[in-house]
């Protein structure tokens, strides 16, 4: 992440932002106390990365207070609030960090009415990950409840800090342990293609900019339930089923029969790190080999075995894998894979403050780490599918069509998992009419 920041220092793609609307009597002094205590507890948030003799070095500040600017919007009309809030939240989440000087955790408060606020919290990915957001919200909730009553923090001190984990990982991941992992991944990735040949709307730029956007599609609840029932019958998880469907979609678009897809994993196998804020996230490279005559059921079970094997060898950091395997790098695309799949937890992290109601606000960071990233979330209304994409390569209409094709594919999989991968319908009825009749 430091290396990527050197390539493009004003890139917001690696910001992690959350915005929460707070309805109720908010005590600013107590909130400030909570934020300062969290930065004190977690060294990584007050860590900077500076150059010493040409190498990046961690410098941990002894203690820093979190600036909490308050923007008073109480004079605005109610109708203007939503527009202004959305604009300000997105601007704040896209504001870049200076990894050499900035606190890697910042906060901002929008004051809408006397008991109506929006709290914007942003961390840089080098100091946090998705799990860290849960840790952050949990600790704010506990600390606010205690500090608002004049009590001290009830949280135990972290058993270790992020730097301790980094030292342990380097000491452990060497010698035969490292060689065994490298042998496995060399075999798994031998002869794999390094480029996903997706048809794009524009030529690929010489330098990847990470400019991006996203389109969303909600699958109806009956289809979601049918997909889960299929998972039960085929003895696979929803993660593996959706990953397989994504693999088929990419296969049908590219005609490649060997595809690499990245997928994030928590990287928190040790009990001591479960309560730490930090970048523990690792990336698993999953090799998918769909063939046109193979049934979807056969492909699904084959992929399940590959995924389980990959998870059993997940501990080697992705960046170490790239370095040790000497993977060819290009400034125009991400190494090894250009498509990512993510399945989020059904319940997002919640902020629970006494006498207040807390509600999520959507954030559009406007960045894309990869050419395509499929993000799935299991909600009460059904499966939510978001396809994030590089705006250098794709138009929004293309991505919306790709999502519709994915929906058609999932409907086809539910009704005919025994069909071959190329027999599974992909086109909408209107597209088939246009291609086979109107244009014939």
Describe, in plain words, how this protein is organized in 3D:
Helix content is about 40%, strand content about 20%. With about 450 residues, the protein is an alpha+beta fold. A 5-stranded mixed β-sheet has the order 4-5-6-1-11, covered by helices on one side. α2 (about 30-40) crosses α4, α7 crosses α11 and α8 (about 240-255) packs across α11. The longest helix has 20 residues, at about 395-415. It is globular.
Summarize the structure.
The protein is an alpha+beta fold.
Average predicted local confidence, pLDDT = 91
Overall body shape: globular
| Uncertain residue segments | none
Major β-sheet profile: 5 strands, mixed
| Cα-based radius of gyration, to the nearest Å | 23 Å
Order of helices and strands: HEHEEEHEEHHHEHHEEHHEEEEHH
What distance lies between the first and last C-alpha atoms, to the nearest angstrom? 51 Å
Strand order of the largest sheet: 4-5-6-1-11
Query: Strand portion, in percent?
Result: 15-25%
Roughly how much helix do the residues carry, as a percent range? 25-40%
Q: State the secondary-structure class.
A: alpha+beta
Strand segment count: 13
Total count of helical runs of at least 4 residues: 12
Give the helix/strand layout.
Elements: H1 2-7, E1 15-23, H2 28-41, E2 47-52, E3 55-60, E4 70-72, H3 78-94, E5 105-113, E6 116-124, H4 130-147, H5 162-172, H6 175-189, E7 212-218, H7 221-234, H8 238-254, E8 259-265, E9 282-288, H9 296-311, H10 318-325, E10 339-344, E11 357-361, E12 372-378, E13 383-390, H11 396-415, H12 429-438
Parallel strand pairs: 4-5, 10-12
Antiparallel strand pairs: 1-6, 1-11, 2-3, 5-6, 7-13, 8-9, 12-13
Helix pairs in contact: 2-4, 7-11, 8-11
């Amino acid at each position: 992440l430091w290396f990527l920041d050197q390539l493009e220092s004003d890139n917001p793609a690696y910001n992690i932002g959350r915005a929460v609307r707070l309805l109720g009597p908010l005590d600013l002094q107590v909130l400030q106390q909570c934020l300062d205590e969290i930065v004190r507890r977690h060294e990584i948030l007050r860590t900077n990365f500076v150059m010493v003799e040409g190498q990046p070095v961690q410098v941990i500040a002894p203690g820093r207070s979190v600036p909490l600017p308050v923007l008073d919007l109480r004079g605005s009309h109610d109708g203007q609030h939503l527009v202004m809030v959305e604009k300000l939240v997105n601007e704040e989440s896209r504001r870049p960090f200076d990894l050499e000087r900035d606190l890697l955790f910042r906060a901002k408060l929008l004051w809408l009415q006397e008991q109506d606020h929006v709290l914007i919290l942003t961390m840089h990915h080098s100091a946090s990950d998705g799990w860290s957001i849960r840790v952050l919200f949990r600790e704010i909730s506990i600390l606010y409840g205690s500090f608002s009553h004049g009590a001290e923090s009830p949280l135990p001190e972290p058993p270790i800090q992020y730097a301790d984990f980094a030292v342990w990982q380097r000491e452990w991941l060497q010698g035969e342990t490292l060689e065994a992992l490298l042998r496995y991944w060399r075999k798994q990735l031998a002869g794999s293609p390094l480029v996903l040949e997706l048809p794009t709307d524009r030529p690929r730029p010489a330098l990847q900019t990470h400019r991006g956007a996203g389109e969303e599609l909600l699958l109806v609840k009956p289809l979601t339930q049918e997909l889960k029932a299929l998972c039960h019958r085929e003895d696979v998880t929803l993660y593996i089923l959706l990953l397989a469907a994504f693999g088929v979609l990419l296969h049908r678009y590219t005609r490649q029969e060997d595809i690499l897809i990245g997928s994030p994993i928590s990287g928190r196998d040790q009990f001591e790190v479960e309560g730490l804020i930090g970048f523990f996230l690792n990336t698993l490279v999953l090799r998918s080999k769909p063939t046109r005559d193979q049934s979807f059921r056969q492909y699904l079970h084959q992929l399940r075995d590959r995924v389980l094997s990959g998870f059993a060898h997940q501990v080697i950091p992705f960046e170490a894998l790239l370095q040790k395997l000497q993977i060819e790098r290009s400034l125009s695309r991400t190494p090894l894979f250009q498509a990512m799949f993510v399945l989020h937890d059904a319940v997002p992290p919640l902020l629970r403050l006494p006498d207040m109601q807390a509600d999520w606000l959507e954030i559009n960071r406007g960045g894309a780490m990869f050419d395509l990233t499929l993000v799935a979330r299991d909600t009460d209304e059904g499966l939510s599918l978001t396809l994030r994409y590089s705006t250098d390569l794709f138009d929004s209409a293309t991505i919306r069509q790709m999502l519709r094709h994915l929906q058609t594919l999932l409907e086809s999989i539910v009704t005919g998992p025994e069909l071959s991968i190329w027999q599974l319908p992909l086109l909408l009825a209107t597209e088939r009419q246009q291609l086979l009749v109107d244009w014939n």
